[in-house]
């Protein structure tokens, strides 16, 4: 079935005596045991599994064309659980512009157990040179933050397959509707469900989806169940509700993202636009091959430096000055001041999460702010 249909139907695992069309929120933390000691209802204790979470994991598995999924209480705990599943002493290769929260985890929480090389993963030919005897994983994030760099998943998966490494992909900016990394050779897909999957800036969540069940995946599942960084039944209910409209929301984000990028690209006060849908984007061809749409995230460099960038984010009216992304409402931020003093992000960079307002209103707002 197609994503629109899967999004609406594949999470409805629930059968009830009251014939609910929409699965209820199941708040029970514990479940009846059968006389023979079994759990014929399929659940024992809600840290281990819960009906709402199982439904969420089922939909995510289907949308990402994987074999199984683990839902977590945040994107950060999803990523952390994967790092925890790696043997101490392992080496990881990750992008130099990896999501800063994961970079921080690796450099602090995992500083004594894992070693990492942060490199430019768009330079495919140089990657093999960083693989060592203890390298176990390449972590890709595409599109990346905040420069919207695109990493060629098919090309990297040829390298990870040859060297028997895990290819993990943070696909948050694409959502499960615009790119399916497993179909392009990835072993594990990661999402911050807080972003497009949730889509309404009102629920925190994360997920890992695996291409195949394996001993390594069992370790990840074990960390989820024993570690306990699980989403609540209500979080799962909200995410399931959101996912039903995800394919249509993504169409709107792509349409608005492209139109705003094209408008900004020709504006005399804008120095550069980073949006993978523009032919001028450095990896536009790769984006066209591995994505079915280019999403609602873009960054721009404005003429006039940090002061002008701050003035613009303070002058727009419809774009809320706030971090995060993927919600129905448009957000804007001066990224360098979010990332702090040691950031490599250009001081005149503005990151925009284009929402689902009417594009004419969004363009009119930028028009007055840049004037
Ligand atoms: C937000 C985000 C995360 C972290 O997710 P949380 O839900 O905030 O914990 C990871 N990767 C990317 C690309 C993100 O945008």
TrEMBL record:
MF-aspect GO terms: cystathionine gamma-lyase activity; pyridoxal phosphate binding
Top-level division of the source organism's lineage: Bacteria
Keywords: Pyridoxal phosphate
Co-factor(s): pyridoxal 5'-phosphate
Keyword Transit peptide listed: no
Pfam families: Cys_Met_Meta_PP
Residues modified to N6-(pyridoxal phosphate)lysine: 195
GO terms for cellular component: cytoplasm
Gene3D superfamilies: Aspartate Aminotransferase, domain 1, Type I PLP-dependent aspartate aminotransferase-like (Major domain)
Similarity comment: family membership: Belongs to the trans-sulfuration enzymes family.
Protein name: Cystathionine gamma-synthase
Organism of derivation: Pedobacter steynii
